[in-house]
Specification:
Helix content: under 10%
Number of helices: 15
Largest sheet: 11 strands, mixed, barrel
Structural class: mainly beta
Number of strands: 90
Oligomer: single chain
Mean pLDDT: 77
């Protein structure tokens, strides 16, 4: 057995004994689907999306709630309406929107190629099956779904480019996704039936003529999520497949114990960031064919997880026996989640009272205890005495307080069981008298106590004891170790009493969840179910979440985060004193270890008072630095914080609080060489607090770094992005600093990938686990866990399992004896008692047993059937271990239930098996035999059933016979019939001991057809080849469905000229000794056409060529469906001028000796289409031009598939205005001798996603509508939108026949809204901002981000009123009848230039132009500012005039070009405001005083003087998607990019439009950004498609790649050997060094949104720029 099979067998052994071994699912095993089951059907197409599926109750996906779902063609389900497929179908995970992806690929159902069904259901049958599947994959889940969503893709095909494809492929896929959910959780099933996947990827539509195929993506993505309220970042995602091979295995393996069935836990109400796959048995290789029923009645055992607790005192590390007794014991509350009523901080149990109470220890530092607890709460330090050489603990006497340890103690600090720190004077301990002695007899060693170490740690012995150390790739204190770099979830409970004013609030075990991105030190904490009256004041208690910031802070050099010291078991005591108000709050947080999912568990107790904070207030915490001091077993800190509160009720207020804290834990002091820090400094760079009123959730977010005290973090951060968190490593990856600014992304331990994208390694499925016998491997994010089977418990190493002696706990009845077995136990009643061992009763009142009832039922009233089996019972009424059948003489062993034990049946006369021996598991043969149905009354077989025969070892007997039919045959070890061995009744059976001959080609062919349906019979209408007894093809083959017969050769290939139709006399195939001539071209063509349709028939309406007896083309060919006839040459090519329509006299094809004229353009076109499909057929639905007898285009052309007709000119070009739809009168094309007029502006007009409607004269129809968005508007004769006429979808369009003067002018609000909708592609996300306008076009008083409650008030110009932002809490009162809480004068859009800067980057960011000074070549983020605020604008292109110190920009919203002086108080001026639709890139020629811009809507490049005069169009042809444009003043050259997805390019010309040519087009994807390197004279571009930054000389030479790791660049500028890019993925500015090709710096604006154009402003003109 190979290693993979052994692994599978091992994994299967870990299942419950009642889990059945099954094969891959079949299509009939899918969840029921189709219209009969209430499914809706998705329309046919290449990129279709269903209407919104409204869910009866919300669905949690990850930890977000969704109420609608959408099903899409391309193999996905989304929680929001999908963008166009070009934005996601060829990209990997993650996506920008929520996705459940069973098979994300470019799928096309056009032309009836498959169907897509979907529905939301709550039927019990579906929900019960989902419950069974979840229980199978997650045995511990308590999940009962209330709703399910079923989506099925049936026989769907991949998209194929007809221009490149040889014809439609016959490969189709079938798969299904099922989402089950309840009020808190969601699970997703992916089902891939056997043979359901025949293609595994699709070719991208934009592969730039490169023959590539992208494998399908399978997995989940949360989509973009909010980051610091209004910014966006990629959310979590999970990939099931990695490459094509893993896609192929989707139907061959599974993670539920069923091949082809995949199950995932995909959502929970609170903090669910990682998809959890099922792990029942790991991946399952398909076993031999056995029927699969999705309703297997399995009984998966419930596994119990024991919380890890420390061993008793004798198992403590030696170092814990300190002068105060020992380190704190962590005693989890025996009531589980309930907390103890005793106020023992951290849950430390006080030591027991000792009999020796007369010895005292004096404490020299009387100032050590700093009372922070109520006076009545008194705990003491243990007293130490001697009793037989052992240290004895005394009753605690001292107050337990948070201890102030400043200045640090000189002596070692020991920890009392109460958890506080004390100092001991050595003079009070008599070391000479043996008060405290140390001997090697009580030394703790790894051999005895290694179990206290983490399974990801190793143990080391030292002279005084042992220590645990995390293995490479993990971090922690050795007792608990976590994988390096992996995000860390935290869960726990919050309890206590918090008083606001005079009102107390009880917190009773409410949920706390946290999530820490370890790679950049971000910690997010949420506390749920916080009542509103308490939620607002609790925003001030940020120290609750700061604990997690310290534990997992981003480490600067020479430092370590807290978890490496404390591990997962610790106690934090903190006191917060607020000022003013003198409110005091106690916080106790207890780390209780890692749970079964490797998540940190922390409980929080808070008691005291907090200051009142008004509802709706905004709390801002100032960044701070705090020094932590480290002692043995304790860390302390003290700091003063400041925060401000701004509210409508009380205005702005300032507060401070003083925080003192001790964090106590267990350390290991035996390793004297371990260097422990004395002090470290935590730097909390961002502290964010918020209360969500709607969901009653309190949130804290902190960004942390930890480093040496006094370290200049600004200098440190210049060293490497790993220390700033600005790297682009995956959240499950480590950033490893290299030299200088270089770094490397390395996936966290337990993850695999390139560092930018990491996926969890399933150690269980890949055989990488360390689990031993009697254990089951459970995969966890980044690691795995070994779970012992029922009846076993974990041994010291955490990997192997040992038997539990259940008898030690006396589980049996007092009148029974207990027998311990491996993994179980038995209870047997004593001889004078009867029962099951758990309940035993005297025999005098015993009831009849199951065996006795069975026996009496068969014997009652003398109705025993002749030959029936009668069970034998013992004295106790139990089944006798050996049962025998009186009629047949067979004997066998049974278990306590009377079930036959496999492998124990013996024939009559044979020695019986010893029935006291333990059972062996049933073999496949025995399972097969026993599964044959029997009569429920007497156990006899149903008539006619075949029962396999097994030998004494349970294996199939080589010769099998059917008792009813008399047929016999040989089988292999799996019970599969050996071909050619079946013999009919009465004939001698085959000798099965002879070795198998291999299956012949014919038998392989036949058997592959015969087993294609669920019953093992041939598919209806399928051709089944006939083989002789030797497995060779019969010479004559016939199709049972069509009646066609033909002769074949030894390979089964049809012999040419032998096919006969149904009813005709078949050819004598025995006359085959003469050599057969090969098929001719005509015969190949004919035969392929005749059998290419379903059931081997020709497709309806297909042309079938006619061949003569020699296989040559008949000179005259006719199309049976259309009636057309024509002459062909010897190659079957149509001879020009010979085609005649139906009913006309055909041309005499024998007159073919005159020379043929050359083919015309029409004939070339027609013939190329007719032969471009597979086997020389035209592609399905293709248009075939019609030519006259002279080869010229017929004046009227019609499309045979669509019915459209139109007139063409002599070159076959369509004449404008002549196209008619099917069923309408056609245009008279004979009136076409006059010259065709040129196309009008409307006919030439094209726009992304919008095609204007033109009338018969080619003029714009007054009312225009965009189908994709539903918006309509009126236009003038030039197609320009009339202001105030745009209406949203679902509303009545304007009457465009009314004069324009009667129309209301479109308001700023309406224009801004329409522009943003276009910018968002017509489908804005729920979180994206759209201006809200009143019916009269004015701004609504309240403006909000999407569907959130992050809102603010605006004035009538739409400008924000300062102080009214709600910060995602509750909408402010901005109605006209309620005055805004704060009203200040709104400033006009004046320029505010940065002070004292020589070089500044100017960048466009929506409604503002930002200024980012440069310090040398570094980005000076500290001095960044807003140059100009432009409410209602979308600034895209930006340019700078160094001679006049002015900035120019394009405004996509206002459709204008503007400028302003970069001087304090300067105001903008509009230069051009007409004829612009989508102005983007902008360039200024400082030498010639010109400006140039591109319009991506009208696809033009224009120029004008800098004051807007002398405007002219340079180019309006051969442009598709122009974007960036630059001008090189020194050479008078113009360069621009065109990101046409079909043919992207970069072009150049002179500034007056002469000498236009392409600079580069090869290897270009989405060239967004363009700049000029004055030092080298090269053109450089940044490509969002190839992710590269490249440069090239204007003549096309010297091309080189500067960087190949870009994200999504939009614009770029060059300065001082550096490129500065605006990046849409990071929403910031990225700096790249030209010399090192490395990222050198990054700037992320405080307000995160897309940055557009970028330029450089200098105090003097740079060389070459003028």
């Amino acid at each position: 057995m190979d290693r993979g099979a052994m692994l599978t067998a091992a994994l299967l052994c870990c299942w419950s004994c009642s889990v059945y071994l099954v094969t891959a699912i079949r299509r009939t095993d899918l969840f029921p689907y189709g219209t009969l089951h209430g499914d809706a059907i998705l329309p046919e197409g290449d990129d279709e999306t269903s209407r919104a599926l409204t869910l009866p109750r919300p669905l949690y996906f990850f930890d977000s709630s969704f109420s609608q779902l959408y099903v899409a063609t391309n193999g996905i389900i989304s929680a929001q309406d999908l963008p166009m497929e070009q934005q996601y179908v060829d990209d990997g995970l993650p996506t920008d929107f929520p996705v459940v992806a069973p098979f994300l690929a470019d799928i096309d159902t056009s032309g009836g190629r498959g169907h897509i069904y979907y529905r939301v259901t709550g039927t019990p049958g579906i929900l019960n099956r989902v419950t069974q599947e979840v229980n199978r994959g997650f045995p511990d889940a308590k999940f009962t779904p209330t709703q399910a969503v079923v989506a099925t893709w049936e026989n769907v095909a991949a998209y194929e480019d007809q221009a490149r494809a040889a014809g439609p492929s016959n490969k189709v896929n079938t798969f299904q996704a099922v989402i089950g959910y309840d009020e808190t959780d969601s699970y997703v099933l992916f089902l891939y039936p056997e043979d359901g996947l025949t293609f595994f990827g699709t070719r991208p539509k934009e592969s730039y003529n490169v023959e590539i195929e992208l494998p399908a993506r399978v997995g989940f993505s949360r989509g973009e999520v909010s980051y610091f309220i209004i910014s966006k970042t990629d959310g979590p995602f999970y990939s099931v497949t990695q490459d094509e091979d893993s896609v192929k295995r989707l139907s061959q393996v599974g993670n539920t114990g069923i091949a082809g069935v995949w199950l995932f836990h995909t959502g929970r109400r609170y903090f669910f960031q990682d998809i959890i796959p099922a792990s029942t048995g790991g991946l399952l290789v398909i076993p031999p064919t056995v029927g699969y029923s999705p309703y297997l009645d399995t009984t998966t055992p419930e596994y119990e997880f024991e919380d890890y607790t420390f061993e008793p005192e004798t198992e403590e590390e030696e170092g814990s026996q300190t002068l105060t007794g020992r380190d704190p014991e962590y005693q989890p509350d025996p009531r589980g989640s309930e907390h103890s009523d005793s106020l023992q901080p951290g849950g430390f149990a006080p030591p027991p009272h000792s009999e020796d109470s007369d010895r005292q220890i004096s404490y020299k530092r009387e100032d050590v205890p700093l009372p922070l607890e109520p006076v009545e709460r008194q705990y003491g330090a243990p007293r130490v005495g001697i009793q037989e050489g052992r240290v004895q603990e005394q009753q605690p006497q001292l107050n337990l307080d948070v201890v102030d340890l400043f200045p640090p103690l000189t002596s070692k600090v020991a920890l009392s069981p109460g958890g506080h720190v004390v100092s001991v004077d050595e003079d009070d301990v008599d070391f000479d008298t043996g008060v405290i002695q140390y001997t090697t007899e009580n030394k703790e060693t790894c051999a005895r106590f290694q179990r206290q170490c983490s399974q990801n740690a190793f143990c080391s012995d030292y002279p005084t004891g042992f220590c645990c150390h995390c293995q490479t790739g993990f971090y922690g204190n050795g007792r608990q170790c976590l994988p390096d770099g992996a995000p860390q979830p935290v869960s726990g409970k919050v309890s206590g009493t918090v008083t606001v004013g005079s009102t107390p609030f009880e917190l009773n075990d409410i949920d706390l969840h946290a999530y820490i991105v370890v790679g950049d030190g971000r910690a997010y904490t949420a506390i749920s179910e916080v009542p509103e009256s308490l939620g607002w004041p609790m925003m001030s208690v940020s120290p609750i979440g700061e604990l997690f910031g310290w534990l997992f802070a981003l480490e600067l050099p020479n430092s370590q985060a807290g978890f490496k010291i404390t591990g997962a078991e610790f106690s934090r005591h903190a006191e917060v004193l607020f000022n003013p108000g003198n409110q005091r709050l106690s916080i106790i947080q207890t780390g209780r270890g890692l749970d079964e999912h490797n998540h940190l568990s922390v409980d929080t107790a808070i008691n005291g008072n907090v200051p009142y904070i008004p509802p709706g207030a905004e709390v801002t915490m100032e960044p701070f630095k705090e020094t932590y001091q480290y002692y043995p077993s304790v860390t302390t800190s003290s700091s003063v914080r400041r925060f401000s509160v701004v509210s409508a009720e009380r205005g702005a207020e300032s507060y401070t609080f003083h925080l003192k804290q001790n964090i106590t834990y267990r350390d290991c002091r035996h390793n004297s060489q371990a260097a422990a820090p004395e002090t470290l400094q935590i730097n909390m760079e961002r502290v964010f607090v918020m209360y969500d009123k709607e969901e009653q959730i309190l949130r804290y977010a902190v960004t942390n770094k930890i480093g040496p005290v006094g370290a200049d973090t600004s200098v440190v951060e210049l060293l490497n992005p790993c220390y700033t968190g600005s790297h682009d490593c995956d959240t499950t990856a480590q950033c490893i600093p290299l030299e200088g600014q270089s770094f490397r992304c390395q996936c966290a331990t337990g993850y695999r990938g390139d560092g930018q994208n990491c996926n969890d390694i399933d150690e269980c499925a890949e055989g990488l686990s360390s689990c031993g016998e009697h254990s089951q491997c459970l995969n966890l994010p980044g690691t795995h866990r070994c779970q012992c089977q029922s009846g076993f418990e974990s041994s010291y190493d955490g990997h192997t399992c040992v038997d539990i002696d259940e008898c030690s706990s006396s589980p049996c009845h007092i009148n029974a004896r207990c027998i311990n077995d491996l993994g179980s136990f038995q209870c047997q009643c004593l001889p004078e008692y009867y029962g099951d061992g758990f309940q035993c009763s005297p025999r005098s009142d015993r009831l009849r047993s199951q065996c006795e009832q069975h026996r009496e039922r068969l014997q009652s009233e003398g109705q025993t059937s002749v030959g029936a089996y009668i069970p034998q019972c013992d004295f106790d009424g139990q089944y006798q271990p050996r049962q025998c059948h009186g009629s047949t003489g067979q004997c066998w062993c049974v278990d306590s239930r009377g079930e036959e034990r496999p492998g124990t049946r013996t024939p009559p006369g044979a020695a019986p098996v010893e029935c006291e021996t333990p059972d062996r598991p049933k073999t496949q043969c025995e399972h097969h035999r026993d599964s044959v149905r029997t009569d429920s009354n007497d156990g006899r077989l149903i008539n006619g059933a075949y029962v396999p025969q097994c030998d004494e070892n349970g294996q199939y007997r080589p010769l099998q016979c059917h008792g009813s039919t008399g047929y016999c045959w040989c089988v292999d070890s799996r019970g599969e019939e050996r071909p050619g061995t079946r013999s009919p009744p009465g004939s001698p059976p085959i000798d099965c001991d002879k070795p198998d001959r291999p299956k012949s080609l014919c038998e392989h062919h036949r058997d592959s057809v015969q087993t294609t349906d669920s019953d093992g019979r041939p598919l209806l209408g399928a051709f089944v080849p006939q083989c002789d007894e030797n497995g060779q093809y019969l010479q004559q083959q016939c199709h049972g469905s069509t009646g066609h017969c033909w002769c074949v050769d030894s390979r089964g290939q049809e012999r040419a000229g032998t096919r006969t139709p149904p009813g005709a006399t078949p050819v004598d195939c025995s006359r085959g000794d003469e050599p057969q001539r090969p098929k001719t071209h005509c015969e190949h063509y004919r035969d392929s056409a005749q059998t290419s349709g379903p059931d081997g028939l020709p497709p309806l309406g297909a042309y079938v060529p006619q061949c003569d007896e020699s296989g040559q083309y008949l000179p005259q060919q006719c199309h049976g469906s259309t009636g057309h006839c024509w002459c062909v040459d010897s190659r079957g090519q149509e001879r020009a001028g010979t085609r005649t329509p139906p009913g006309a006299t055909p041309v005499d094809c024998s007159r073919g000796d005159e020379p043929q004229r050359p083919k015309t353009h029409c004939e070339h076109y027609r013939d190329s289409v007719q032969t471009s499909g597979p086997d020389g057929l035209p592609p399905l639905g293709a248009y075939v031009p019609q030519c006259d007898k002279d080869g010229h285009y017929l004046p009227q052309q019609c499309h045979g598939s669509t019915g459209h007709c139109w007139c063409v000119d002599s070159e076959g070009q369509e004449r404008a205005g002549t196209r008619t739809p099917p069923g309408t009168p056609r245009v008279d094309c004979s009136k076409a001798d006059e010259s065709e007029p040129p196309k009008t502006r409307c006919q030439n007009h094209k726009e992304r996603g919008y095609v204007p409607q033109c009338d018969d004269d080619g003029q714009y129809i007054p009312l225009q509508c965009q189908p994709s968005t539903g918006y309509c508007w009126c236009v003038n004769k030039d197609g320009e939108e009339r202001e105030g006429t745009r209406t949203p979808p679902g509303t009545q369009p304007k009457d465009c026949t009314k004069p324009a003067s009667n129309s209301r002018v479109e308001s700023v609000c309406e224009r801004w809204r329409a522009s943003l909708i276009e910018q968002y592609g017509g489908k804005p996300d729920p979180q994206q901002y759209l201006p809200q306008c009143e019916p009269d076009g004015e701004f609504s008083p309240v403006q909000c981000y999407g569907e959130s409650t992050y809102c603010w008030c605006v004035n009538k110009e739409g400008q924000e009123i300062t102080g009214t932002r709600s910060h995602d809490a509750v909408k402010p009162a901005c109605l006209p009848t309620v005055a805004p809480p704060v009203v200040r004068p709104v400033t006009r859009p004046d320029v505010t230039p940065p002070a004292n800067t020589d070089v500044t980057l100017l960048y466009a960011q929506g409604q503002k132009i930002g200024a980012l000074p440069l310090n040398g070549t570094r980005l000076d983020a500290a001095r960044s500012s807003t140059l100009l605020t432009l409410h209602g604008s979308i600034v895209v292109g930006i340019a700078y005039d160094c001679k006049e110190n002015k900035v120019y920009w394009t405004d996509l919203s206002a459709r204008t070009i503007n400028r302003a002086s970069v001087a304090t108080g300067a105001e903008p001026e509009i230069l051009i405001s007409t004829g612009l639709f989508s102005p983007e890139g902008l360039a200024v020629d400082t030498k010639r005083r010109l400006m140039f811009w591109v319009d991506s809507n009208t696809d033009v490049i224009e120029s004008a003087d800098l004051d807007g005069s002398r405007r002219r169009t340079l180019f309006d042809l051969d442009l598709v998607n122009p974007r960036a444009i630059i001008v090189v003043s020194s050479t008078g050259s113009l360069y621009w990019t065109d990101w046409n997805r079909e043919a992207p390019k970069i072009e150049t010309s002179t500034v007056d439009g002469q000498g236009r040519r392409v600079v580069v087009s090869d290897g270009v994807g989405l060239p967004n950004a363009l700049t000029y390197d004055f030092s080298s004279g090269q053109i450089c571009w940044a490509d969002a498609g190839t992710k590269r930054l490249e440069c090239i000389s204007p003549n096309g030479s010297g091309r080189r790649v500067i960087s190949s790791g870009l994200n999504y660049p939009f614009s770029m500028v060059y300065y001082s050997n550096h490129f500065y890019c605006s990046d849409w993925r990071r929403d910031g500015v990225i700096a790249v060094s030209k010399d090192s090709s490395k990222f050198t710096d990054e700037y992320l604006p405080e307000q995160r949104s897309h940055l557009y154009g970028i330029t450089i402003a200098t105090s003097h003109c740079l060389p070459g720029s003028h």
